[in-house]
Amino acid sequence: MPGNSAAILEELRSILKDIQESFKKLAEEVEEMKKLQVEMMEVLIGKSEKTAEMKIGSKFVKTGAIDLKIMEKWSEFTPEIKINCIRRMDLETRLNLRRTARTEKTLVDSCLSIQDL
C-alpha cells in the first residue's frame, strides 16, 4: 500500500503542475486580451473624436471633424445658445445633460415638450 500512495501522490503532483501551467497560460491570454481591448477603445475614441453624427429630423447626417474642446466652454455659453443646442439633441442626450447640473436641468426642462416624451 505505501508504494501505491507514493504513486498516487506523484500523479497528483503532476496534475497540479499541469493545472498551474494551464492557469499561467490562461492568465497570459487574459492580459493579452486586456491589451487588445484597450487598443480597440483607443481606436474607437479616436474615431469618435474625429467625426460625429448629427440627428436632423429623422435622419443621421455625418458631420466633419469636431473640436471637443468647445465643450469645455459650455458653461460660458449664453442660455439662448444652450437652448438652441438642446433643441437639436435627441431625448436620451437631453436627459443625460439634464443630470449634469441644476442650470442644465432647468434649460432642458424648458425645452422638453409632450412630443419628446
Automatic annotation (TrEMBL):
<feature type="coiled-coil region">
    <location>
        <begin position="9"/>
        <end position="39"/>
    </location>
</feature>
<dbReference type="InterPro" id="IPR001810">
    <property type="entry name" value="F-box_dom"/>
</dbReference>
<dbReference type="Pfam" id="PF00646">
    <property type="entry name" value="F-box"/>
</dbReference>
<dbReference type="InterPro" id="IPR042317">
    <property type="entry name" value="She-1-like"/>
</dbReference>
<protein>
    <recommendedName>
        <fullName>F-box domain-containing protein</fullName>
    </recommendedName>
</protein>
<keyword id="KW-0175">Coiled coil</keyword>
<feature type="domain" description="F-box">
    <location>
        <begin position="74"/>
        <end position="112"/>
    </location>
</feature>
